[in-house]
Amino acid sequence: MVTTRGRKGKRESPRVDKRGGGKKAKREEAKGAAAAKAPPEKKLKESDLFEEDTSSSEDSELELRDDYGVEGGESSESESSLDDDKFFGDDSDEDGEGDGESGSEEGEELLEIEKKARRDARREKEDAEAAEAELGERGEQGLTTREEEDLFDDGGDDSESDEEDGRGVGVDVFKVKRRLQQVVGILSNFKQLKKKQQERQDAGSDGEEEEGGEAVTELRPRSDYVRRMTKDFKVLYGYNDFMTEQILSIFTPAEALAFADASEGSRPTTLRANPLKTKRRDLAAALIGRGVNLDPIGDWSKVGLVVYESKVPIGATPEYLAGHYTKQGASSLLPVMALAPQPNETVVDLAASPGGKTTHIGALMNNTGLLYANELKKERLASLSANIQRMGVRNAIVCNYDGRDLPKAIGKFQCDRALLDAPCSGTGVIWKDPGVKTSRSPEDIWKTVKIQKELLLSAIDMVDAESKTGGYVVYSTCSILVEENELVVDYALRKRNVKVVSTGLTFGQDAFIRFRQHRVHPSIAKAKRYYPHVHNIDGFFVCKLKKLSNKIPESEVAQEAIAKKQKKEEKEKAETAAASGKGKFNKKRKSKWKNRANDTY
Amino acid sequence: MRPLTAKEATAVFEKLFKFVGKDVEAFLRKKEKDSYCFRLQKNKVFYIRESIMRKSTNIARDKLVSLGTQIGKFTHSGKFRLTITSLNLIAEHAKNKVWLKSSAEMSYLYGNNVLKSSMARITEGTPVNAGVVVYSMADVPLGFGVSARATEDCRRLDPHSIVVLHQADIGEYLRNENEIG
């Protein structure tokens, strides 16, 4: 378990969140801890900079050791043998490179300065790990009575009011964060903890009391922790009920926390070089000349560049204006790579603006063939055509249809490939628009899902299954919600003769095939999901479909006929109702539909 | 969308002639088995491959925003203006060129005229009032304008006098994106 000594030292130090507290707070904490203990204790690198004291490194490890010792699977028996020696021994076994003893062995061959550098690097790493791990792992070992009280009793009352204030007002953010991490720690190891508790109970309660008041209380039911976590999650990150529920159901507690943290930060600026005008290497050289610090984005893309820092505005260099590159998120390279358009094909992009993906398609087609770029929103058309012109794409037709009407305009089965980067709730790009946290409701999602389904069917309808080179549809969203992704694809699989094929992307997590009550077609696992906390790109979903036949499945034909008939009947009914003077209701309804047609997506 | 009338076509070709000279025929020549054509949509003139033009006839007039490369637009008074989007086309065939010193690039991209002091090179034999394409030292086309002086006069000019009058520059993609699209 835990040394009484170590724990006490920590107790008496002021309660400050290690990561959030900043350097000053850290130093204070270190001082406080030092005062509490007989040997001067230091655990932080900053204080090390000021005093050359070699003994300090050991103490910093002591902090870690508390936790590692426990992690090493010492359960009830080890609780009785809690002398420091044991701990030191244990720890050096576990992370052998991480402590002073092994350092002194190497010592002869190294210069003093080298030793110091190594020590510093090690300590830095340990500090970071410790800060991350400490709270979570303390959760792992179960909580002491006092902490348990912290979690439920004093948090319980004020959290009600916290929710109303939303975020932060009168809430100790660090405290909530700390508490949240503890609970998440417990929840992630709930099974083990339960087992341990069982063992403890079997062993009898005498052993625990010998420890002197640091007894571990009984675990509460899992639901208690879940409720606590949900509340804190909402308070800390400011999501509404619906979004909290969604996020917590998609991710494990620990992942949800990582996701929310990642959604607070921003993603790196990325560029796409335009092969129609330049080569990536030349572009990189030109930009480096302007004081931009950049690198290729990774092995998976030949055109992507990631910008670390720039002295000039990256969206206003002469190279940008000349169309040598465009600014776009790393995630928006993925659907086009999955689509893999070939020269001389006919490709349609149903929701094109602002043209990042469209110009990427144009570049891959090398200005041959034909590219339809459709965009519903009038105010976004200007930037779409300007970008297409700037990037030197000459094979594009920009049009302004509702994507659902597009098959009527350009005809069914006329295209080789279709890209639908569907309008979505934007839950993958919360860092760009934090409003998503509070503004999304189930109704919004249903609405967008309906549009997404219709758009996907219309995309599929435009593609010709007999195409020699293509017959593919790529569906992507910047949403992480299953409703907008897997379920939409599943719907399309039922409604049209298509199958899911591999996206050809080398990374990303497989899409879900089971989620809560939903069971989707197993082939959907070939689709890819991307998360900000895992891949450091926007939350994203990419699915590639291959059209098998232009025919619509027979069962669906029948269903559609029925639906059509019903619609007709309804219309007739409404007409007769209107004729008989009950027109008011009908009118209202009509206007509602009219509004819906104009609805943003 | 419709083909240009004879009058409109003259206006367009006269303007292009200023920049590319006799090479203006090249715009209508077949390239790699594709023939190209000019089309007017609303008040904008587009230069497109014929096969694309045919496909675009399916699209309703009010829904068609742009196609191919936009060359320019007709003003209310019926005059034809080249827009910055035509830069790449005319740069391919440009007769008269001016290269800017790298220190003067940004000034030009903010819409200023080219001064003698900011000019690095100019094509030999550029007459007065000819169409000129402006390049950066890295041979990236930045815009176009009209020469205010002939090449021979340039040598004797004082550094502050204007050599090329500004007509369009790629900075417009930022400054007035809405008028381009």
UniProtKB/TrEMBL annotation, chain A:
Q: For this chain's UniProt record, which GO biological process terms are given?
A: maturation of LSU-rRNA; rRNA base methylation
Q: Where in the cell?
A: Nucleus, Nucleolus
Q: Where is the composition biased (Basic residues)?
A: 1-10, 584-595
UniProt GO cellular component terms: nucleolus
Compositional bias of kind Basic and acidic residues: 11-31, 39-48, 112-128
Which GO MF terms are attached to this record?
A: RNA binding; rRNA (cytosine-C5-)-methyltransferase activity
Q: Which residues form the SAM-dependent MTase RsmB/NOP-type domain?
A: 259-548
Classification via InterPro entries: MeTrfase_RsmB-F_NOP2_cat (IPR049560), MeTrfase_RsmB-F_NOP2_dom (IPR001678), Nop2p (IPR011023), RCMT (IPR023267), RCMT_NOP2 (IPR023273), SAM-dependent_MTases_sf (IPR029063)
Q: Where does S-adenosyl-L-methionine bind?
A: E375, D402, D421
- Annotated region (Disordered), positions in chain: 1-168, 194-218, 563-601
Active-site feature positions = C478
Keyword Signal appears in the UniProt entry: no
Which Pfam families does this chain map to? Methyltr_RsmB-F
Family statement: Belongs to the class I-like SAM-binding methyltransferase superfamily. RsmB/NOP family.
* NCBIfam families cross-referenced by the UniProt entry: nop2p
Please identify the protein, giving its name as recorded.
RNA-(M5C) methyltransferase
Automatic annotation (TrEMBL), chain B:
Superkingdom of origin organism: Eukaryota
Location(s), subcellular:
Nucleus, Nucleolus
User: Is RNA-binding there in the keyword field?
Assistant: yes
Quote the cellular component terms of the Gene Ontology held in the record. Answer: nucleolus
- Family annotation (CDD domains): Nip7_N_euk, PUA_Nip7-like
Instruction: Please classify the protein's predominant subcellular localization into one broad category.
Output: nucleus
Domain (PUA): give its ranges. 96-171
Q: Name the SMART domains for this protein.
A: PUA
The Gene Ontology terms for molecular function here are: RNA binding
The record's keywords, sorted A to Z, are: Nucleus, Ribosome biogenesis, RNA-binding
Give any Pfam family that matches.
pre-PUA_NIP7
| Example GO biological process | ribosome assembly
Q: What's its job?
A: Required for proper 27S pre-rRNA processing and 60S ribosome subunit assembly.
The record's similarity note reads: Belongs to the NIP7 family.
Binding partners and assembly? Interacts with pre-ribosome complex.
Q: Which PANTHER family match?
A: CYCLIN-DEPENDENT KINASES REGULATORY SUBUNIT/60S RIBOSOME SUBUNIT BIOGENESIS PROTEIN NIP7
Q: What is this protein called?
A: 60S ribosome subunit biogenesis protein NIP7 homolog
Lineage per the UniProt record: Eukaryota, Viridiplantae, Chlorophyta, Chloropicophyceae, Chloropicales
